[in-house]
Amino acid sequence: MEYFLIIISAIFVNNIVLAQFLGICPYLGVSSKLSTATGMSMAVCFVITLATLVTYLINTYLLVPLGITFLQTIAFILVIAALVQMVEIVLKKVSPSLYQALGIFLPLITTNCAVLGVAINVVTKEFAFVPGGMLNLGQALVYAFATSLGYGLAMVIFAGIREHLALNDVPKAFKGVPIAIISVGILALAFMGFSGMVK
Amino acid sequence: MAVKSNLVNMAVVLGATCLLCSAVLGGAYALTKAPIEAAAAEKTNRAIGEVLPHFTAAEFVADGNYYKATDGDEVVGYAILSNVVGFGGNLSLMVGVTPDGVVYNTSVLSHSETPGLGAKCNTDSKFMDQWRGFNPSVKKLAVTKDGGDVDAITASTITSRAYTLAVANALDTFNGIAGQAGNDALTVMPGEDRASNNEGGQDNE
Amino acid sequence: MSKFKLITDGLVKNNPTFVLLLGMCPTLATTTSAINGLSMGLATLFVLVLSNMAISALAPAVPDKVHIPVYIVVIATFVTLLQLLMQAYTPAMYETLGLFIPLIVVNCIVLGRAEAFANKHGVLESACDGLGVGLGFTCSLTVLGLVREILGSGSAFGWNFIGGHDGMLAFVMAPGAFLCLGYLMVLFNKFLKKN
Prior knowledge:
The complex is a heterotrimer of chains A (199), B (205) and C (195). With 199 residues, chain A is mainly α. Chain A has 8 helices and no strands. Chain C has 195 residues and is mainly alpha-helical. Chain C has one domain (3-191). Chain C is built from 8 helices and 2 strands. Chains in contact: A-B, A-C, B-C.
């Protein structure tokens, strides 16, 4: 049952972009076209889930038993950097067109706050609807996967909006990023309607 | 601009950097360990001090998630940690219960409630004061909407219900402790003993 | 390039929030009040200056293909140092800023300045660049925090001026962050950007 709560909470109630403010930079950069947005979401989904798996295991079996949790930040970011490198290599072989389309944004997944943010959250945050508060590995993976689905959802919705915005007559000072951010604000306002769903 | 890369010097530089940084951090950790622990202990003691009368020592009991506060040989009370799901996320309380089963006070450790609505759970004095000396054997532990004696925050029934549930859970833990101590006189049944007009707690509308 | 100019460039010409459009995540998340924004800015400034200096000193010895991971480890070290210091001496602010302290590691500003400036310039100049951009970031965060605090809680730097009443609370929550930032960008574009 708590898996369902975790999923709903991660996608709608505490959406990673619209409520937790993570993953904004690439969000603004990649969401101008629907096709790149979808490709990027899938890449991010893969990296977040895999990164959470590895960092959770490293934290539980290496950092905590040895009492070196202060090395958490370094260890986690190195894992993420290595994973992204791996994804780049695989993607180049498997789907060169997507690799080209994502361009500079693929290596930038390393600096995507969402990835590191989720990795740190699953090992430090307490979740009330889980007995004991801390997530086990299965719940952590579900949380990570659901979070990245939420990221993808927000991104795809936003890409759709931006494609329309590009065709409209926007005042000069608003053009580009400002109007995009204001639109995200309105989208965030809409998503606020989901709060209270997990009860 | 930099040195030409080959497998050896890449591995050496990266490895050396990692070792150097870990050493620096290890040193920094050793130096800051004491102040960090002191800060954490002070925070816990301050939280317990808010929910229980004067104490000199507090012992954490993991099985039940509470602190047993003592002053010399006398048990001053139990500061019980209670987590529930509120409106916007986790609602984490510390509930101080004295050995007679009365809630001395409650304190919000963390919450994700809506500012101006549920977030008033730790700023609205009318809501907060009703928990001081809340006697569950005299007052019913539910919001007035559900037929109880707890005055909810205006327009924040869900947060208020969650808060009430957190207090109820803490009292359950207390009953468990009291049961273990073998002292039946301590066990309280919330809402059951609506005795005569008892002036024990606050008067709520 | 004059060291003083390096510092002032960071405030307007190279302002990380309004011109370079970097470091959006902490900008939106930690500006619920002016003090929070100010603290976050200063924390980032600390890491920026130190990592710029360290990377500037190390850059000549680092092989090209492995320079990103090396820079990341150096930055992560300073961030962890900051974490330890804040936990020990400013625990309340550490809790308020929460997740966003370790997230300074992936703040594009820090890695961005290392790549764009520190690895090509001397230690002192890199320090000035870090100082300038850091100050620009701090100012942006403080201004955004102040606007959100005035509109949302009716206070400024913690000093409440509307009695006990609530302000327009949407501004201390998620949508307000985006809206305020968007409109501040519009104002910046109209009045301060020279092109």
